[in-house]
Batch of 3 targets.
Target 1
Amino acid sequence: MTTHQAALETKHTALDRRIAEESTRPLPDAQVLAGLKKQKLRLKEEISTL
């Protein structure tokens, strides 16, 4: 695993946590969740191309 790939995996994990935190709020913000999920998907796609 390269340093770049490890950094992407770390960001992906952090986004997972942020998505979980936002989802468990009493009134989750749908726009924030959508943005976080898009970022996570972009990272996943970038990781898969490495």
Target 2
Amino acid sequence: MDQPSDVPAEVTTASVAPDDDDLLSALEVIEGQPLAARAAGYEALLDALAKRLESGPTDARP
């Protein structure tokens, strides 16, 4: 994802790819940003969570 020039550098996939315990903190950081940065932050968070989901186990549970 390319980051718009008005989005702060701290709103990146790396900074919003939280562990389970840090999800709320990541959301609080995103919510504290201006609107354009929030949109980019949520997009980065969505991408990071989707990658984690896709890389998870593929075994079907009974």
Target 3
Amino acid sequence: MSKPLIDIPKEKLQQVRRDMFQKVQREKRIKKRIVSVTFISMLCLSLIFSIRVSPTIASQIAKIPGFQAIVSAIAIDKGIKDIVDHEYYEEINVSQSKNDLSLTLQGVIADNSGIVLFYDANASFDISKLNLERVQLFQGDDEIECGCTYTKNESDQTYISSSVEYNFLEPIAYTSKDFKAVFHFHDEEKGNIEITLPFSLKNDIAKEKTFTANRTIDINGQKFTITQIRRSPLKVALDIEVAEENTMQILALDDVAVMTESGERRDSINGISISGNIRDGKYTIYLQSNYFDDPASLTVMIGAVQAVPKGEDFVEVDFGTKEILTKPNYFNGDIFTAQQSVSVKINKENQGKYLMFSDAIKENGTMLEFTGISISRDEQYVVETSRFEEYNGKAKIYLNYYANPIAKNIEVKIPLQ
């Protein structure tokens, strides 16, 4: 491995990573699991008729108008089910119309970690090509900085039942409970459609439950510490610090979950599952919430710890000549470059997770902007292509993920009382 050609300007990468993170989340929403109307209808019926098993949640669901979106959320997140069961979901039912499109904000879930809006859209025209391009969230007159993801369910041609999730980059103070969400749609025939939905929260905001953990995991000298467990209605957050003296760069903790003494397990959530960057030494993993339970302890389970040698965690690329200058000797896959992109071809058996590359530094020490990712598959291989801004020089591109487990099936029991 040759000497790194560029020092990493870590202090400059913070905002770039935030921007990249939101951009990737917008692209991921297209790939999110689609829940068909048939499935949702069946699930709605099954939930309503489950009154014999769970009268509380059945009665709560039945009261929610346009409840398809909340039902689909319950299907994939146990924490949302708990929220409805404990009546923390807040009904709003505010509507606005524009250009023959009617938008109804059915309800809201809000805590210190974020806000989820559940909405319905009805139209007198074919909205199969109606795209939700962005949603702004304001508290009073101030726009809230947050990562935003959208879930779109399959539906007929004139109706959508869906949700928008805001994940706060920093906890907000609910000094004002007056908000507005500005939806920006685009339709091929009608053009841009902007609809503003003001709403006010009436319920008390649940306080975050924070527990000091300070449990260090040592894997042959490679250490990381679970410093805190923070629980809110929408998420369980595990705050993690990585030891600076490690000789290996820890890239990821896979398949993280928590389990109570009763065996109730909460896995990762759809959409945003981490914040921060593990390379910076501090980051947070988010899991489905068990806020309304009060266990004496939680067992944190980690399926695998992925790490590679420090100083061998990048590839060097010349975008001018379209050459891969260096790559790690251990890398089990093909790496090739084209115009403003780097592609990885890897056997499905060694696939691991997506987004291997995004952080990139030009030879002058400035950031090379990440602009998107595409993934293709055949029977044997997965090809991931990371795209960057126009640039014809050399760059160093860092691994975000590589399947090289240094430990598997870790369990750490942490008392909460």
